Structures are given as structure tokens and as C-alpha cells.
Amino acid sequence: MFPANIDDYVRPESVEEALAAVAKYDEGESVFLAGGQSLMQAIKSRIVRPRCIVDLQNVDKLRGIDQTSGLTIGAMARYVEIAECKTLPPAYAALNDAACHVGDRQVRNRGTIGGSICWNYVASCMPAVVLALNGTITLASSKASIREMDAQDFLLGPFETAREDNEILLSISWPSPPASTGSAYKKWGLVTDSLPVVGICVNVTLDPEGVCIAARVAVAGLADGAQLSVPGAEAIVGSDGSGDSITAAMATVAGSVETHTDHWADAEYRDQLICSVGAEVTATAFRRAHG
Amino acid sequence: MKTINIKINGSMYTETVPVRMLLVDFVRETIGLTGTHVGCTYEGVCGACTIHLDGEAVKSCLMLAIQADGHEITTVEGLANNSEQTPLQTAFNEQHGLQCGFCTPGILMNMTEFLAKNPNPTDEEIRQGLIGNLCRCTGYVHIVNAVREAAKIIG
Question: Which A residues in the span 95-134 are in contact with B, Cβ-Cβ below 8 Å?
């Protein structure tokens, strides 16, 4: 585990400088480095062999959590910042849930939300949360060229996103949430806070009677990476959060995604995990939506 | 090769290093501070290489040395003040918080920052805080005891 030779390292101060630095090399020869908690592993095992590393640590524009209008999380916001952000509304509490249990303290001190969703590891928490919360992804390829897209259009599959090599992820953002909205995320792994064998994120909006009128559900830990479950979300709509209705909805979630067998868990067990962890997560989301 | 400036335990070091040099190797091989350990094969799983980067616990095998250019690092050698142990170090001694001691530097660095942020932790919080540090001797009971005792003194 030691990197192959790396020709150059630059530490730009702005998005424009970062884009210019990457453009100096052929496609794939230079990489943006955020927290490095995944990418450095790939560089050390030489799966990724960049000629140049463009370290984003000094790009102020990518930092921070801004709640002046809705919620905007900079690509370089670290897990520790998201985990310790106590002012997120219940609608976005799933971000807290996930960030608190990614890796360990040391990893959370360095790892970033932007790095996580750009890496889009097959078993990771943030892609599922961003999918279920329907985040808007903002990418820049130059000062004049900025594009926005929904998370589901950005996250294409394991290790694949819609980001081009010459594009930089600026932020993930959300509007002010509708009233009576709550979200929650939980994962299950073989050891505490390990990568998710199964993770599930649920986001519900309730009417004044406490009946769900809108929902989104995403599952992490699948062979295809994090996936939305549209049938699962439809099954939650109309529920008042009672145990029976949630149990039925979670069976629909499990039936709607393709679970796989690996050395951590077989497909049937993953289905069961989706039902049991999902029921707990859904109950938490309903409780948060009630306020 | 790039020239980097890093303050380690209060002293400024200027060294010319290859871009691909890992921070843990810089600390151990270039500077010669071998208290920072490598317990896994640089995979970021054992936590023995934990140091403070600008006061925060991070794994030095998951960083290039050049990423720390312009920053301040504390290693386990920088904890004691003129050979006077910190309360956490004393607690590890008194509570027998180590056996072989290989993982101890990383745990001390992680738990020093942990206690600074959370001076009155529950046992559950201590155990959660220790997830990133592997110890294969103690079963963690004495480590948790040591952190709890240190918290009583610090808090």
C-alpha cells in the first residue's frame, strides 16, 4: 500500500484555479482530492494512478453548511461538521444520522460529503441519504458553466457519477422543507459503524392528520449501489405510521430492490434487514415529521 | 520532489519530499519520530498512526505529507509537557490501559481530542470514540477505564 509515482501536487485557492489545474493534464491523469479517506486508499493500492493531485483543501467556496436559504452543504463539508450540526431541520436529520456513523472519529474528521458522493462507493451511506432527500447537485466546469441536477441523475451506479473529469462538485442543496417533514437513516453492518451491508433512508411528509402524503425511500448496500425504491415510497404514502402499515411498506421496499448474496449476507437476509431496519427508520422519520 | 514546511510538536521542519510520500512515513522516517505507529498495512484500519492535524485526530497513513504542508501536527511525543504526562497518559499507566502498547500512541492521540470535545463522556461514547483504533491485547476494558478516569481529572 504505497502510491505509484506522482508528478505534481497543487493546492488551488479557487474553483477556477482548481479547474485550470486539472485541465493541464489529459483526461483521467489528474484527480481532485477532497478528504482522501477513500481516494487515498485507491491511490495507495494503485487502482488510481494520478500524475497530478489537485488538493481542494484551500478552496473556501466548497466549505461549510449554509442554512440562510434552505440548506446548502459545500462539497468539502466534513462528516464531523454535518454530524455536529445541531440546527438541521427534521426533514434533513437523516444527514446527521448518516454522518455520525461513517467510519470512525478520525475518518469523520477528514472525510467529506462531496468526496463520498463523487466516489459513489458501492456500499456507502451518503449516496442513499442524498437520493432519499432528493438533493440538488451543483457542478461547475468553468465560472460560466454551472449545471444542476437531481441526485438520482448524478448517482449512476457504483463508482459512477454524471460528473465529468473537468467538472468540480460545488455543493448539494435543498429548498426549505415542507411542513411536517421528517427523515431518518440507519445502516446495519457486521461491526459497529462499518460499511453498510444494508442501509435505509426514509423521508416522509405528513398532512395535518399525520397521514403520509409524500415519501422517498433509498436503500444502501446493494450490488447496484444506493437505489431509490419508488414502489416502497408509494407504499408508505397513505400510512399513518402504524406498525402494520410500515411493515407492509417495508416488504414492498425489499421486494422492489434487487438484493444480492455476498460473504457478508445472503439476499434473503438482506431482505429481512431492509424490513427490520427499515421499519425502525420509518418510525423515526414519522416521529420527526410530527415534530 | 516538493519542499514542505510542517510544524511538528512545536518545531518547524522544512524538508524536500516526493509527492507520493505518506504523512506517517514523513513523521517516522524523515523526522524520526517513531512513536507514531503503523499497525496495519497502511490501509487506514488500525488507527495506530493517529496524529493531530491542526488539533484534530486523523490517520496519518491516509494523507500525503504534502497535504500537511503549512499545517501543525502533534504526535504522541508532543503530548507530555517536559516529561510531565498528561492526565490521559497517567490514567493509561494507572489503569493498565495497555499490554503490548503498540496501539497506544494512536489511542492517546484520538482520545486526547475526544476528551477535549467531550470532557464528560459516557462509557458508550468512549467505546464509540474508540472505533477507529484496534487493540488486540486488552479487550478495551482497561482502555475504557483509563479514558473514564482521565475524564474525571480533566472534566
Answer: 103-107, 109-110
Q: What structural domains and CATH numbers belong to chain B?
A: 2-78 (3.10.20.30), 87-154 (1.10.150.120)
Interface predicted TM-score (ipTM): 0.97
Residue A46 to chain B, least CA–CA distance (Å): 11
Average pLDDT of the residues in A191-220: 96
The alpha-carbon gap from B131 to the nearest alpha carbon of chain A, in Å, equals 6
Q: What percent of chain A has pLDDT over 70?
A: 100
**DSSP letter string over B85-149?**
PPHHHHHHHHTT--SS-SSHHHHHHHHHHHHHH-SS--HHHHHHHTTT---SSSTTHHHHHHHHH
Question: What angle is formed at CA A160 by the lines to CA A229 and CA A202, rounded to 5 degrees?
Answer: 25
Does B67 sit within 8 Å of A33, measured CB to CB? yes
The answer to whether B34 and B24 are in contact (CB under 8 A) is no
**Cα R_g (chain A), whole angstroms:** 19
Find which of B20, B107, B124, B134 to mutate to test the A interface (most A CBs within 10 Å of its CB): B20
E strands within A46-150? 52-55, 65-66, 71-74, 136-140, 146-150
Q: If DSSP codes are grouped into helix, strand and coil, which group holds residue B21?
A: coil
Check if A2 contacts B (Cβ < 8 Å). yes
Domain A63-174 - what CATH class?
Answer: alpha beta
Asked whether residue A170 carries a pLDDT value surpassing 80, the answer given is yes
